[in-house]
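Worked example 3 (structure in, sequence out).
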């Protein structure tokens, strides 16, 4: 996988590349790290790679990549709460859940980037649990967080086991 916007941390790039190449990319991925290190950029690059139709993913040239880069791809949704505690609300999660059961429009996957997941309130965390545990086969959730330790303990232990956590 070619991640031109993510500099450094070759271990992370190598791990993601192997997951992508194996065809066993997890349905849920947590990107954890300090504010400003590029978590959302990495999430967008991963989403672009997942929808890419080129050989060297993400190619940046195919129509899928161009739409992803332009933030207009119909199968990539990004949710960014205000960044304060409890600002990621249950209504947002319910909308995500309803949309997740609709087949992808153009790509093989529907990707949901949930930035600042540590800002989810308790109700939002609980609402997200079921779909994280049993998502449609074409859905990938990419959550960014400053600290997964801020998540509800049940939420953390139940829903993150099937996914992979990337630490910087």
């Amino acid at each position: 996988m070619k991640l031109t916007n993510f500099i450094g941390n070759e271990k992370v790039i190598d791990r993601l590349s192997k997951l992508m190449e194996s065809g066993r990319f997890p349905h849920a991925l947590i990107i954890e790290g300090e504010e400003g290190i590029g978590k959302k950029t990495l999430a967008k690059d991963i989403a672009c790679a997942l929808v890419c139709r080129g050989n060297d993913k993400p190619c940046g040239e195919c129509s899928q990549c161009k739409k992803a880069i332009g933030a207009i791809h119909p199968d990539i949704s990004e949710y960014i709460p205000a960044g304060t505690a409890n600002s990621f609300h249950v209504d947002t999660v319910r909308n995500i859940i309803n949309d997740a059961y609709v087949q992808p429009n153009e790509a093989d996957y529907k990707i949901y980037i949930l930035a600042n997941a540590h800002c989810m309130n308790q109700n939002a965390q609980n609402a997200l649990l079921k779909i994280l545990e049993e998502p449609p086969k074409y859905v990938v959730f990419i959550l960014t967080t400053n600290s997964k330790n801020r998540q509800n303990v049940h939420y953390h232990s139940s829903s993150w086991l099937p996914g992979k956590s990337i630490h910087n």
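Notes: The chain has a mean pLDDT of 83. The chain is about 40% helix and 15% strand.
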